[in-house]
Amino acid sequence: MTDAASPMSPGPAYGLRTLGVALCSLVFLAVPLVAGGEAQAQDCPNRGDLDSMYCDANGDLVADPPAELVDPSTLVFAYTPVEDPAIYEDIWQPFIDHLEEVTGRDVQFFAVQSNSAEVEAMRSGRLHIAGFSTGPTPFAVNLAGAVPFAIMGSEDGRFGYTLQLYTRKDSGIDSMKDLKGKRVAHTSPTSNSGNQAPRALFPKQGIVPDEDYEVVYSGSHDQSMLGVVAGDYDAAPVASEVVDRMADRGLYDPEEVKIIYESKPFPTTSYTYAHNLDSALVEKIKEAFFTFDLEGTALGEEFSGVSKFVPIEYKEDWEVIREIQEANGVEYTPERLAEE
Fold first, then answer.
1. Rounded distance, CA 17 to CA 338, Å?
2. Which of 120, 208, 255, 287 has its CA at 20 to 30 Å from residue 246's CA atom?
3. 3-state SS assignment for residue 260
4. Full 3-state SS string of 228-256
5. pLDDT digits 0-9 by tens, 289-311
6. What domains are defined for the chain?
7. Are 238 and 164 in contact (CB under 8 A)?
8. Closest to 182 in 3D by CA, of 162, 207, 203, 200
9. How far, in Å, are 193, 223, 224, 250 from residue 242 at the CA level?
10. 3-state secondary structure of 70
């Protein structure tokens, strides 16, 4: 899942390798032996995909608060793994200052080296607030008790982007069923929004890639779109944010194409808190996020097109991601997270 527009990878590629994978797996396996025994003995009416350390009695797919909550005097905050954490620590500093002011707590920026390490840090209680990339978010929810509550969005509350299926207006293709027997451009085998998402989502629309239409790999979202415009391909699934940028640069005429399918929005990085934080502290954390103005800050400049944090619900807003992961055989285990 490597394409730049992929909702699974809004940032550097994630996962550990070699020794790091082994060490991370050992840490994960060790934690339940320490903290999981008591939780396993609890009367939990519903757990779903959550680890045995957690319970989901209300069915919202995230871990319920335990009987004993924690109220740390110093909060530890982490952003998704990046190539140069020091730069991002500076970028996040205005927000951290705001978070300290609203919560009345000291806040430390924690530079994580991998998504596996970030998930393990929250699971073990060393991380209280974290931004998890889109694909790793379900792992954080199920393995670490992370509770997603915010995402970067626009002033009107919109966030993320969609998968759009484009064809020429004069192609004679007006619905998904019209793709049968056609040549459709996917980007590359490892691309999420350009290949894996269509393979997961299109069968529910009555069309199966490689069976109902011929898949031709274009190499990129840009090439897929340009190929549709030129008539090289009958249609192509592409990420909305890519074609929007192409239109802004005048690379194609929007009047020549049309959309015959659009997915639910794919979310970007989720911002989460640990499920066992004191409820009053959680409210202060939410207040800090939802009162912070991204515009005019280094953070806002780094993430263009967004102006504020907007509320999310994991059950609803990550449904399309879970659907894609399920279709691709993803299981929420430390070993699978390390492979991603």
1. 7
2. 208
3. strand
4. HHHCCCCEEEEEHHHHHHHHHCCCCCHHH
5. 999 999 889 888 888 788 999 99
6. 18-157+267-339 (3.40.190.10), 163-262 (3.40.190.10)
7. yes
8. 207
9. 11, 11, 11, 12
10. strand
CA pair distance 19, 27, nearest whole angstrom: 12
**Radius of gyration of the chain, Cα coordinates, nearest whole angstrom:** 21
CB distance 328 to 171 below 8 Å: no
Nearest CA among 26, 12, 8, 10 for reference residue 112: 12
Crossing angle (nearest 10°) for helices 240-248 and 221-230: 70
Token pair, residue 152, equals 């970067």
Tokens of 247: 């239109």
Average pLDDT, integer, range 89-107: 96
CA distance 196 to 308: 30
Within 59-114, residue ranges assigned H as helices are 85-103
62 contacts 140 by C-beta, under 8 angstroms: no
Extract the runs of DSSP E, i.e. beta strands, from 52-203: 74-78, 106-109, 129-132, 146-153, 163-168, 183-186
Residue tagged 């912070």 (tokens) = 292
Q: The sheet that has 236-239: what strands, in order across it? A: 236-239, 163-168, 257-262
HSE-CB at 254 with a 13 A cutoff on CA atoms is 10
Q: How confident is the model at residue 21 (pLDDT cuts 50, 70, 90)?
A: very low
CB 312 within 8 A of CB 147: no
What is residue 192's predicted lDDT score, i.e. its pLDDT? 75
Label the pairing between strands 214-217 and 183-186: parallel
What is this structure's pTM?
A: 0.77
CA distance 193 to 135: 12
